[in-house]
Write a structure and sequence with these properties.
Main location (chain A): membrane
Structural class of chain B: alpha+beta
Family (chain A): Belongs to the protein-tyrosine phosphatase family. Non-receptor class myotubularin subfamily.
Largest sheet of chain A: 7 strands, antiparallel
GO biological process, one term (chain A): muscle cell cellular homeostasis
Radius of gyration of chain A: 27 Å
EC number (chain A): 3.1.3.95
Keywords (chain A): Cell membrane, Cell projection, Cytoplasm, Endosome, Hydrolase, Lipid metabolism, Membrane, Protein phosphatase
Distance between the termini of chain A: 7 Å
Strand content of chain A: 5-15%
Number of helices of chain A: 20
Shape of chain B: globular
Radius of gyration of chain B: 28 Å
Number of helices of chain B: 23
Strand order of the largest sheet of chain A: 4-3-2-1-7-6-5
Oligomer: heterodimer
Number of strands of chain B: 14
Helix content of chain B: 25-40%
Strand order of the largest sheet of chain B: 4-3-2-1-8-7-5-6
Chain lengths: ~600, ~725
C-alpha cells in the first residue's frame, strides 16, 4: 500500500499531468481556481492559449502571468495539466508563425528555458492576440533589459530561518583553525580596493604584508591574488586560489609574485614543492600569453611544479549542454543513445573536472603539499576545482549547512559571475558570457552523492532546488557578479536568501542514509563506468523517464526506522508493565512477530 | 627489466583442497601470481595446480586466512577456476600475447587466464622449473580448452564419489513429474483449456521434449506423434484472464513441395480443431525473425565481455575515454533492450488484448525460453520469489530443453553452437531487479552467483542439453560403469556453495512480501502450489477482435513454410502506437510490486550490470560507496529491529520469535567497497584512481576551444 504511492511532483516548477486535483465547479473555474501566488507577487495578465505539450499533444488552457511566474492550467480536467514556471527560467521568447500562417496551432510563442525545456503556446490569429502577451512576458522575464528590478526585491515571503546568517567568513575560517601563526586574516580588501571581484575578508600567509599583496595584485589578472581557500587540519597543506599571472608574450616576471608563492610553499612547514594546477589545457594557457596572461614558468618559479588539468573553457561547456538538450528534449534519442550521449561530451567534461579536483585533493591530503589553483580569471574552473576538492576532503561541506557555506564562500563571495553566466533578467540569450559552469559543479556533486550514497546529508531534491532557484530570481542568493555589487544593491537587506527556504523545511532535503563520518577523504571514481547522466534533472520533464518517487529503497529504510522507534517505545512500555508485575495487562497488543509480518506486508 | 619486490619464496607444502572425485592432474611450484593492480608487479608465490575439476593457485603464505571473507563460495575459492569457467588462455612470449589453444611448441613466460566470470589471472612462470612449466601449461590448455566427452565431465566423478542423498527439492518445482505440471496448470488456472500429456514417456515422441508437457485439450496423441512434436503448440503459462503463452518448434524448411503441402494440411487440421471456442484469438511471433539471431547474440556478448576483461590500469583508462561508444558498438545493451521490448509486446497481447500468444522458433528452446521467462517474471509475481524463479528456470529452461551443454560450449565440441542465451535472460532480469528493487525476493548478488554457477560442474542443472540426455546418462545403462545410476546435485540447493551466513546475501531485504492469506487458508494449500492471487482479475470486457484464429492460420503456414514475415505481433492490422500507449499508460500509474511489472526500456534506463561485470576491476572500486552502502545501512537497521524484536519476545516471555529471515551481518559496514561481496581481498589502498589517459580532442569545435573565457586584453593594463 505504502509503496504504491502516487508520484510526488516538485511544487516549484514541474509540469503535472496527474489527475490528482479534484474537479472544481465547472462554471467560472477561473475565479475559483487558486493560482499559487507568493507574498509580493502580483498578477499581470491572463489569456486563453493552447499549450503545445510535446508529450500529450495540444492542451487547451489559460495562462496567468505575474511578476514572478507563468502559470498554466488546462481547461480539461482529465488529466489536469499544470505549468508553473518562474519567469527567471526563461532564456528566449520567440514568435512563431505570422498572422497569415496556415496550419493548425502554427501561430504563437516559443519559449526557450534555461532548465532544459521549451514551451510552446498557440494563440488565436485574430486581432494580434499574441502581441500583449509577448510584450508582458518579455518585460517581466527580462526586467534588467527594461529598467525593472528582480522579483527577489519584491518578494515578501517570511521564513523561520534567515539564510543570510548561514555564511560568516570569519567563523568559517575559525572552523578551519584560522588565523594561526602562519596564516592571517587581512582586511585590505574591505572596500574592494585591492580586488573588486574578491570578498572583503581574505586569508593570506602571515609572512606577507599588505604591501606585498598590492604588489602581487599588479601581476595577477584582475588583481585576483592567491588567497587561502582551505587548510588541511593535519598536514597544514593549503588550497590557494587565484587568477593567471600576467606573463604576456615577453615572458614578464615579477619578483613579488615569485616570493609570495615561496612564502605560501613554506607556510605548511614542508620542504616539498608548491604544486600549481592550471585548470586550462596547455595550449590555451600558452595562447593566453598573447593577451597578456599566461602561466608560471619553471625558470621563474623553480620551487613550483605546474600541471595542466585540460578543462575546457566556458564556450565549450555551453555548446556541450546545448547538444545534451538536443538529445533529451523533447524526445530521448532512441536508437543510439550511448554514442549520442558521448558526442555531447557532457560527461567527459564532468570527468575532467572531477579528475582535476581529485588531483588537488590528493595532493593536499596524501601528497602533503600546498596547491595553487587557477585558470584564466579564477572564477569558473577554479571555483569548480577548489570547491569540489574541499567537498572531498572536508566532511563538513557534505552537510546541508556546510554545503551552503561552500557555495556561499567559493562561488558567491569569490565572484563567480552568476549574473553573466546565467544572464539573470537579461534578454541577450546569445550572450557569449553565459555558461553552465555552476550547473556542471552541481552535477559533479550529484555524481559524488550517487557514488557515495551515505556520505551526504542532503538529497537529490536539495541539489535540484538549488538549480531551480539559480534561475528563478526569487531569492537574492545568486544575483549579481560579485560581493561588491551585491553590497551596493543591498541584496542581503532587500532580498531573501535561498537558504532561508531550504533551512526552514530541512526535512525535505535530508538524505536518510547519511552517515556522519569525520575526516574521511572521499574520492569519487572519475571513470565513465561510474559516471551517468543525471536523468532526474536533465530529463525530468519527460513523463516516460520519470523515476519512481519516492525512491523505494529510501522508503523501505524510513519504514524500518519508524518500526525501530516503535519497538523501542513499546519495549519501554512493556518493561514498565512487567516491572509492575501485573500479568496479562497487555493482552490487547499483538505479539511482536505478528507485527513484523504485518509491517512487512505493508511495504 | 621488471623488478619484483617480494620476499624469497617460502618452501612450504601446500596441498589443494580436493572435492570428492577430484584428482590432481599436474602441478607447478614457484609460480608467481600478480595482484593485477598498478603494474607494480606485486604478487605472491605459490603452486599452480590443475585437477579434473579446476585450476587452482595455492598461495605459499596463506596467512591472510584469518580475515575470512563474509561471502565465500565453499566449492570454488578465490583462486580457483573451474575448467568450464576458463574463457581464454594467453601466453606471453617476449611481451607479446598469444592465444593458447592446442599443442604448444614453445612455453610462455607468463600465463594469462581470462575467466567466464570475468576474472583475469596473471601468472609468471619465469621462476618455475622448465619441466613443470611444460606440464602445467599443456595440462591446463588440454583440460580446459580441448573437446571432451560428456562422461568426462567432473559432474560424473563427483556424483559417483559423493552420491547426493539430500532431497534437494527445497521448494523448487523441478517439472519432471506429471504432478508438477498439473499443479502449475491449476495454479495458473490453465486447466480449463489445457492438459498434461504423457505421450512422450520413454521419449517415443521426441528426445528434445520433456517426458511430460502441456498442450491444448483438443490436440490428440496422434497429432503429437506425427511430426515428433513439431507443429504442436506447447503451453508455457496462462494469464489471469485465461490468455495463454504457447511455444512451438517450427518445421524445418522443406524443399519438397508435396511434403510442404502435407505439413500445411497437418497444421490446418490442428488449427481447425483448436479454432473452436474458447481458443479463438491467437497471435504468432516468429522469434527467429523478430529478434537477433543466436549468432548476433554471441558476437555481441563476445565483444561486450571483452570490455571487462581488463589487463591493467592503463587498459582500463584507455578504454574509458571512448567508453560509451565502445559499449554501444558491442550491441549487447541494444539486444537486451530489444528482448525486453519484445517481452512487453507479448505482455500487451496477453494482458490487454486477451489474446493467446504463440512463440515460434526453430527448436523453441532458445529465444522462446528467454521471452516466455521474461513474460512470466513481468506478469506473475510468483516468478519474482526465489523458489518461483527457480521453478520457472526448471520449467522453461531445464525441462524446456535448452541446450546448456552446447550453448555454454562446456565440452568444447563446437564454437558454432555457443551462445549466451541464459546469460541474456539473467541480464534482462537484472534490469528489472535494479529498476524495481522491492519486487524481487532475490538480489542482484543472487543473479550474479547464479550466472557463476553456469560453470560449476557439480550440479546437473546446467550440464545437459535435454531431459532425455540427462536421463540416459543418469541411469548408467549406456556405459559399463558400475556406479550408475547417478544422483546429481541441483544448483538450487544453495547450501552446497554457501553457508547460511553467505546465503543471506541472496535474499533481498527490500522485498515487499505479498500480503499473506488468512492463516486458516494457508494450512490447506501446500506452499509450492499456492494459488496465485496477486493478479487482479480484470473485467472480461468484449475483446476488440481483430483477427480470429483461422485467419491467422495462413500467416502461420506461410511463415512456417519459410516465407518469413517481419514483426508479426506489430503487423499492419494493429495501430502502430498500441504498444507505446500500453507502455506509457502503465508507466503513468503507480507501481504495484505484486502486479504487472514493465521495465523501462528507454536508452538511459538500460544499464550495465555493474556488479557482475565490474566486480574484479580494482580501478572501478568505490571505497565506502556503491549501492552496498545503502544496502548495508538497511541490513544494520534490520538487525537492530530484529534484536529489539527478540527482546520484546523475551519480555512477553513467549519464546517463539517468528519465522525471521536470516540477515547478513556486516562487519564494519561503513567501509565496505562497492565490489562487495566479491573481490574482498582486492587492494585496500586509499589512493584515488586517476585516469592515465584522458580525452582532449574536440575537433569539431576548434574555434570554441581556442577562445578564452572572456576576451580581454590584459597586457593593456600594464603599460
Amino acid at each position: 500500500m505504502a509503496s504504491s504511492s502516487t508520484p510526488i511532483y516538485n511544487s516549484n516548477s514541474l509540469e503535472s499531468s496527474s489527475g490528482k486535483r479534484t474537479l472544481k465547479d465547472g462554471t467560472n473555474w477561473e475565479q475559483h481556481e487558486e493560482i499559487p501566488r507568493l507574498p509580493g507577487e502580483t498578477r499581470v495578465t491572463d489569456k486563453d492559449v493552447i499549450y503545445m505539450c510535446p508529450f500529450n499533444g495540444p492542451v487547451k488552457g489559460r495562462v496567468y502571468i505575474t511578476n514572478y511566474r507563468l502559470y498554466l492550467r488546462s481547461v480539461e480536467n482529465d488529466p489536469v495539466v499544470v505549468l508553473n514556471v518562474p519567469l527567471g527560467v526563461i532564456s528566449k521568447i520567440e514568435k512563431m508563425g505570422g498572422a497569415s500562417s496556415r496550419g493548425e496551432n502554427s501561430y504563437g510563442l516559443d519559449i526557450t528555458c534555461k532548465d532544459m525545456r521549451n514551451l510552446r503556446f498557440a494563440l488565436k490569429q485574430e486581432g494580434h492576440s499574441r502581441r500583449d502577451i509577448f510584450e508582458v512576458l518579455t518585460k517581466y522575464a527580462f526586467p534588467q533589459s527594461h529598467n525593472l528590478g528582480f522579483f527577489a526585491f519584491a518578494n515578501e515571503e517570511k521564513f523561520s530561518e534567515n539564510g543570510w546568517m548561514v555564511y560568516n567568513p570569519m567563523s568559517e575560517y575559525r572552523r578551519q583553525g584560522l588565523p594561526n601563526e602562519r596564516w592571517r586574516v587581512t582586511f585590505i580588501n574591505e572596500h574592494y580596493g585591492l580586488c573588486d571581484t574578491y570578498p572583503s575578508l581574505l586569508v593570506v600567509p602571515y609572512n606577507a604584508t599588505d604591501d606585498d599583496l598590492k604588489k602581487v595584485a599588479a601581476f595577477r589578472s584582475r588583481n585576483r591574488i592567491p588567497v587561502l581557500s582551505w587548510i588541511h587540519p593535519e598536514t597544514q597543506a593549503v588550497i590557494m586560489r587565484c587568477s593567471q599571472p600576467l606573463v604576456g608574450m615577453s615572458g614578464k616576471r615579477n619578483k613579488d609574485d615569485e616570493r609570495y608563492l615561496d612564502i605560501i610553499r613554506e607556510a605548511n612547514g614542508q620542504i616539498s614543492k608548491l604544486t600549481i594546477y592550471d585548470a586550462r589545457p596547455n595550449v590555451n594557457a600558452v595562447a593566453n600569453k598573447a593577451t597578456g596572461g599566461g602561466y608560471e614558468s619553471e625558470d621563474a618559479y623553480p620551487n613550483a611544479e605546474l600541471f595542466f588539468l585540460d578543462i575546457h573553457n566556458i564556450h565549450v561547456m555551453r555548446e556541450s549542454l546545448k547538444k545534451l538538450k538536443d538529445i533529451v528534449y523533447p524526445n530521448v534519442e532512441e536508437s543510439h543513445w550511448l554514442s549520442s550521449l558521448e558526442s555531447t561530451h557532457w560527461l567527459e567534461h564532468i570527468k575532467l573536472v572531477l579528475t582535476g579536483a581529485i588531483q588537488v585533493a590528493d595532493k593536499v591530503s596524501s601528497g602533503r603539499s600546498s596547491v595553487l589553483v587557477h585558470c584564466s580569471d579564477g572564477w569558473d574552473r577554479t571555483a569548480q576545482l577548489t570547491s569540489l576538492a574541499m567537498l572531498m576532503l572536508d566532511s563538513y561541506y557534505r552537510t546541508i549547512e556546510g554545503f551552503e557555506v561552500l557555495v556561499q564562500k567559493e562561488w558567491i563571495s569569490f565572484g563567480h559571475k552568476f549574473a553573466s553566466r546565467i544572464g539573470h533578467g537579461d534578454k541577450n540569450h546569445a550572450d557569449a558570457d553565459r555558461s553552465p559552469i555552476f550547473l556542471q559543479f552541481i552535477d559533479c556533486v550529484w555524481q559524488m552523492s550517487k557514488q557515495f550514497p551515505t556520505a551526504f546529508e542532503f538529497n537529490e531534491q536539495f541539489l535540484i532546488t538549488i538549480l531551480d532557484h539559480l534561475y528563478s530570481c526569487r531569492f537574492g542568493t545568486f544575483l549579481y557578479n560579485s560581493e561588491s555589487l551585491r553590497e551596493k544593491e543591498k541584496v542581503t537587506e532587500k532580498t531573501l536568501s535561498l537558504w532561508s527556504l531550504i533551512n526552514s523545511e530541512k526535512s525535505k532535503y535530508i538524505n536518510p542514509f547519511y552517515t556522519k563520518e569525520l575526516n574521511r577523504a572521499l574520492y569519487p571514481v572519475a571513470s565513465m563506468r561510474h559516471l551517468e547522466l543525471w536523468v532526474n534533472y536533465y530529463i525530468r520533464w519527460n513523463p516516460r523517464i520519470r523515476q519512481q518517487q519516492p525512491n523505494p529503497v529510501e522508503q523501505r529504510y524510513m519504514e524500518l526506522l519508524a518500526l525501530r522507534d516503535d519497538y523501542i517505545r513499546r519495549l519501554e512500555e512493556l518493561q514498565i508493565t512487567n516491572s509492575s508485575r501485573i500479568p496479562n495487562s497487555s493482552a490487547s497488543s499483538a505479539s511482536p512477530s505478528q507485527m513484523v509480518s504485518h509491517l512487512q506486508t505493508h511495504f | 627489466p621488471q623488478e619484483v619486490h617480494i620476499k624469497e619464496p617460502i618452501e612450504k607444502e601446500v596441498n589443494p583442497h580436493l572435492l570428492p572425485g577430484e584428482t590432481l592432474l599436474c602441478e607447478a611450484s614457484t609460480v608467481y601470481k600478480y595482484i593485477q593492480e598498478d603494474g607494480s608487479n606485486r604478487g605472491t608465490y605459490g603452486k599452480l595446480v590443475c585437477t579434473n575439476f579446476k585450476i587452482a593457485f595455492l598461495d605459499d603464505d596463506s596467512a591472510s586466512d584469518d580475515n575470512e571473507p563474509q561471502f565465500k563460495n565453499k566449492i570454488v575459492g578465490e583462486n580457483d577456476i573451474t575448467l568450464q569457467c576458463v574463457d581464454q588462455i594467453y601466453g606471453v612470449y617476449d611481451e607479446k600475447k598469444k592465444l593458447l589453444t592446442g599443442q604448444l611448441r614453445k612455453y610462455p613466460e607468463k600465463l594469462i587466464i581470462y575467466c567466464k566470470d570475468l576474472r583475469v589471472f596473471n601468472f609468471c612462470l619465469r621462476y618455475t622449473k622448465e619441466e613443470e612449466v611444460k606440464r602445467i601449461v599443456s595440462g591446463i590448455v588440454h583440460h580446459s580448452q580441448t573437446p571432451k566427452l560428456l562422461k568426462r565431465l567432473f559432474l560424473f566423478s563427483y556424483a559417483s564419489a559423493a552420491p547426493n542423498n539430500a532431497d534437494g527439492r527445497n521448494q523448487t518445482v523441478m517439472f519432471d513429474t506429471l504432478e508438477d505440471w498439473r499443479d502449475e496448470l491449476e495454479r495458473t488456472r490453465g486447466n480449463v483449456k489445457y492438459k498434461v500429456v504423457a505421450t512422450n514417456e520413454g521419449y517415443r515422441v521426441s528426445e528434445k521434449l520433456p517426458l511430460y508437457f502441456v498442450v491444448p485439450i483438443c490436440v490428440s496423441e496422434e497429432n503429437i506423434l506425427k511430426y515428433e512434436g513439431r507443429g504442436i503448440p506447447i503451453w508455457c503459462w496462462s494469464c489471469h484472464n485465461g490468455a495463454a503463452l504457447l511455444k512451438m518448434s517450427a518445421f524445418p524448411k522443406e524443399q519438397d513441395d508435396s511434403t510442404a503441402q502435407t505439413q500445411k494440411a497437418f497444421l490446418d487440421g490442428i488449427y481447425k480443431t483448436i479454432s473452436k471456442p474458447p481458443y479463438e484469438l491467437l497471435k504468432m511471433d516468429d522469434l527467429s525473425s523478430s529478434l537477433p539471431s543466436l549468432q548476433d547474440i554471441q558476437t555481441a556478448y563476445t565483444r561486450f565481455k571483452q570490455l571487462f576483461l581488463i589487463d591493467n590500469s592503463t587498459d582500463f583508462w584507455a578504454t574509458d575515454v571512448k567508453w560509451f561508444s565502445l559499449l554501444e558498438s558491442t550491441n549487447w545493451l541494444e539486444i537486451i533492450r530489444r528482448v525486453l521490448k519484445k517481452a512487453i509486446e507479448v505482455v500487451e497481447c496477453l494482458e490487454r488484448q486477451h489474446t493467446n500468444v504463440l512463440l515460434i522458433e526453430e527448436s523453441a528452446t532458445d529465444l522462446c525460453c528467454v521471452i516466455s521467462s521474461l513474460v512470466q517474471v513481468m506478469m506473475d509475481s510468483h516468478s519474482r520469489t526465489k523458489s518461483g524463479f527457480q521453478s520457472l528456470i526448471q520449467k522453461e529452461w531445464v525441462a524446456g530443453g535448452h541446450c546448456f551443454l552446447d550453448r555454454c560450449n562446456h565440452l568444447h565440441k563446437s564454437d558454432k553452437e555457443e551462445a549466451p542465451i541464459f546469460l541474456l535472460l539473467l541480464n534482462c532480469i537484472w534490469q528489472l531487479v535494479q529498476q524495481y528493487p522491492p519486487a524481487f525476493e532475490f538480489t542482484e548478488t543472487y543473479l550474479t552467483v547464479l550466472s557463476d554457477s553456469l560453470y560449476v560442474p557439480i550440479f546437473s542443472t546446467f550440464f545437459f542439453n535435454s531431459q532425455h540426455q540427462k536421463d540416459t546418462n543418469t541411469s548408467g545403462e549406456s556405459l559399463k560403469t558400475q556406479s550408475g545410476p547417478f544422483r546429481f546435485l541441483t544448483v538450487w540447493d544453495w547450501s552446497v556453495q554457501f553457508d547460511p551466513k553467505a546465503q543471506a546475501f541472496l535474499n533481498n531485504p527490500l522485498y515487499a512480501e505479498k500480503p499473506k492469506p488468512d492463516k486458516s487458508q494457508r494450512k490447506t494449500a501446500r506452499f509450492k502450489h499456492q494459488r496465485q492471487l496477486s493478479l487482479p482479475l480484470t473485467q472480461t470486457k468484449p475483446s476488440t477482435k481483430r483477427g480470429f484464429f483461422r485467419e491467422e492460420t495462413d500467416h502461420l503456414i506461410k511463415n512456417i513454410l519459410g516465407k518469413r514475415f517481419g514483426k508479426l505481433i506489430n503487423s499492419s492490422d494493429e495501430p502502430p502506437n498500441s504498444f507505446r500507449e500500453f507502455y506509457d499508460s502503465w508507466h503513468s500509474k503507480p507501481v504495484d510490486y505484486h502486479g504487472l511489472l514493465l521495465p523501462h526500456i528507454d536508452g538511459p534506463e538500460i544499464k550495465v550490470w555493474a556488479q557482475r561485470y565490474l566486480r574484479w576491476i580494482p580501478e572501478a572500486q568505490l571505497h565506502g560507496g556503491g549501492t552496498i552502502a545503502t544496502a548495508a545501512k538497511i541490513l544494520d537497521l534490520m538487525e537492530e529491529v530484529q534484536s529489539l524484536q527478540v527482546k520484546m519476545d523475551e519480555e512477553h516471555s513467549q519464546a517463539i520469535s517468528g519465522n525471521v529471515h536470516s540477515i547478513p551481518v556486516l562487519r564494519n559496514s561503513a567501509r565496505l567497497s562497492s565490489l562487495f561481496p566479491f573481490a574482498l581481498l582486492q587492494r585496500q589502498s586509499i589512493k584515488p584512481a586517476l585516469p592515465t589517459s584522458t580525452w582532449k580532442d574536440l575537433e569539431d569545435e576548434d574555434d570554441l576551444v581556442k577562445r578564452d573565457d572572456e576576451f580581454v586584453d590584459l597586457s593593456g593594463d600594464l603599460s
